[in-house]
Design brief:
- The protein is α+β, with helices and mostly antiparallel strands.
- Helices cover 29% and strands 24% of the residues.
- It has helices at 12-21, 48-60, 98-108, 175-181, 183-198, and strands spanning 5-7, 29-31, 67-77, 83-84, 118-128, 134-145, 161-163, 168-169.
- Strands 1, 2, 3, 4, 5, 6, 7 and 8 form an eight-stranded mixed β-sheet that branches.
- The chain is globular.
- It starts with a strand and ends with a helix.
Length: 199
């Protein structure tokens, strides 16, 4: 039986991106939910890479024979000492909407000029293979924090993440363009190269 790839997320938006980027691997890619896995992994690492590896290896324990992919991603704002960073999803409370999170960050950057609004999205993708080995890669995209919430296409912090060279936020990019440029797209393509050698 061909191994399945299980991606450790319940986020449907993320799964859409992942399926688009890894479509040509020729293996079924399913979410944890679709695999019937419901475990809460405590991500207590201090970096995106550590958290991604923790997630992948914990889930591998309950899904032998599968390749487990996990990512940890977030937004680093230089002016705020790289906050929210690894706490991006939990910033201002786990159940707080991104509209509230985005507005809060815009408020914290009130009056801060463009050159000090530099930021990046970071994504670490880890893979746990059936042979017990793990790999981890990182992708980033550089930009600045905009001055308002703009765009309907993205999710999370996309509507405030502005790309000066494109004159728009990542929430205004087409899904194809976003996958080409995004931190997750870069990390997944780097991981795809590793996976192609191992499967």
């Amino acid at each position: 039986m061909e191994p399945k790839i299980i991606f450790a997320t319940g986020n449907e938006n993320k799964m859409k991106e992942i399926r688009m980027i890894l479509a040509d691997l020729g293996m079924p890619i399913i979410s944890m939910k679709e695999a019937g896995i419901d475990i809460d992994v405590v991500e207590d690492g201090t970096t995106f890479e550590e958290n991604a590896v923790i997630k992948a290896t914990e889930i591998a324990k309950v899904a032998p024979g599968c390749i487990i992919l996990a990512d940890d991603s977030g937004l680093e704002i230089d002016y705020l000492n790289k906050e929210p960073g690894i706490y991006s999803a939990r910033y201002a409370g786990v159940d707080t909407s991104y509209e509230i999170k985005n507005n809060l960050l815009l408020k914290r950057l009130e009056g801060v000029p463009d050159e000090k609004r530099t930021a990046r999205f970071v994504c670490a993708v880890a893979a746990a293979f059936p042979d017990g080995s793990t790999e981890v890669v990182r992708g980033t995209i550089e930009g600045i924090i905009g001055y308002e919430i703009v765009g309907e296409n993205g999710f999370g912090y996309d509507p405030i993440f502005f790309l000066p060279e494109y004159g728009c936020t990542t929430a205004e990019l087409s899904p194809e363009k976003k996958n080409e440029l995004s931190h997750r797209g870069k990390a997944l393509r780097a991981m795809r190269v590793i996976m192609e050698k191992k499967i």
